[in-house]
């Protein structure tokens, strides 16, 4: 067997093992009575929000495609009924990957109009054309279910150009999607309409929705509080200012990376997908594009 074939066999085996790991476990945490954070399987997917009650079952984001079957089982165990509505907070596959499977099971998918536009162009992240949102909104949409008001609000040019945050007023819970990575450097998708300044503005808008007792479900990381979100804003504002100072000195991206301005944040905020170096590059790129 030649080296190329061995490499292909190894990659297939690794991908299969990862897929099996993804599909074996969904952790659940009760954020408030009838409201749960579902953790999309061992860090390979994302956090989701679940609102259950006598009227309807609302799922906010739905993880990567390989967790679909286990997601259906988990929701059935918690809600004793299938999912009625899904709200997509943005377009990435770790948040919309189960769309097609859940739509086949009768769920109606809601999303910002820019999410549908992007998924029409490439439905792959949503599991194919069957995963396209069927109800879209511009500024937002309101749900009145299970005895409480759930307000879905669009946040412009932040993580992407189609972000939404869901405010469950009766439970005092906010589902932030990837507008909040809890004690992790955030992924700001500049190629999908996101921006650093828009991301900061969006986080500040969420803070205004919250009080000291609000529970926040982040897109990634542990269940959080307003103070945790404030820490994320403070970090990003400071990080941007430090990179901007070097940009104003005329430093190239390579020189900025060598200077390592975010070194003090590395131990707490660095993680596998968005490393300190990648966060620095994102800040540099965003600042020099403006």
Protein described:
39% of the residues lie in helices and 22% in strands. The protein has 290 residues and is an alpha/beta fold. Strands 1-2-3-4-5-6-7 form a 7-stranded mixed β-sheet. A 5-stranded mixed β-sheet has the order 8-9-10-11-12. The radius of gyration is 19 Å and the shape is globular. The relative contact order is 0.10. Mean pLDDT is 91; it is low at 1-24.
Describe the SSE topology.
Blueprint: H1 3-22, E1 27-32, E2 35-39, E3 47-51, E4 58-60, H2 68-79, E5 85-87, H3 93-96, H4 99-104, E6 108-112, H5 113-121, E7 135-137, E8 140-145, E9 148-155, E10 163-168, E11 173-181, H6 196-209, E12 215-220, H7 226-248, H8 253-259, H9 266-269, H10 276-289
Parallel strand pairs: 4-5, 5-6, 6-7, 11-12
Antiparallel strand pairs: 1-2, 2-3, 3-4, 8-9, 9-10, 10-11
Helix pairs in contact: 6-7, 7-10
Entry summary:
The protein is about 40% helix and about 20% strand.
Which properties best describe this structure?
22% strand; single chain; 12 strands; disordered N terminus; alpha/beta; 5-stranded mixed sheet; 10 helices; Metallo-beta-lactamase, Chain A; 290 residues
């Amino acid at each position: 067997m030649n080296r190329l074939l061995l490499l292909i066999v190894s990659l297939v085996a690794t991908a299969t093992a990862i897929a099996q790991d993804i599909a074996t476990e969904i952790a659940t945490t009760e954020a408030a009575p009838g409201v749960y954070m579902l953790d999309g399987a061992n860090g390979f997917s994302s956090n989701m929000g679940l609102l259950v009650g006598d009227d309807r079952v609302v799922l906010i984001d739905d993880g990567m495609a390989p967790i679909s079957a286990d997601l259906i089982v988990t929701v059935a165990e918690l809600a004793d009924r299938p999912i009625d509505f899904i709200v997509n907070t943005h377009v990435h596959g770790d948040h919309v990957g189960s769309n097609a499977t859940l739509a086949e099971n009768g769920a109606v998918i809601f999303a910002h109009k820019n999410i549908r536009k992007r998924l029409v162009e490439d439905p792959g992240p949503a599991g194919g054309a069957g995963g396209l949102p069927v109800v879209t909104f511009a500024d937002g949409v309101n749900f009145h279910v299970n005895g409480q008001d759930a307000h879905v609000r669009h946040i412009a040019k932040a993580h992407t150009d189609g972000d939404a945050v869901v405010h469950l007023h009766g439970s005092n819970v906010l589902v932030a999607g990837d507008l909040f990575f809890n004690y992790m450097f955030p992924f700001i998708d500049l190629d999908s309409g996101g921006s650093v300044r828009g991301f900061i503005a969006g986080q500040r808008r969420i803070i205004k929705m919250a009080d000291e007792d609000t529970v926040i479900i982040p897109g990634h990381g542990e269940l959080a509080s307003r103070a945790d979100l404030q820490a994320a804003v403070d970090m990003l504002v400071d990080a941007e200012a430090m990179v901007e100072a070097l940009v104003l000195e005329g430093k190239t991206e390579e020189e900025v990376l060598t200077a390592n301005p975010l070194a003090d944040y590395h131990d707490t905020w660095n993680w596998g997908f968005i490393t300190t170096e990648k966060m620095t590059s994102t800040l540099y790129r965003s600042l020099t594009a403006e």
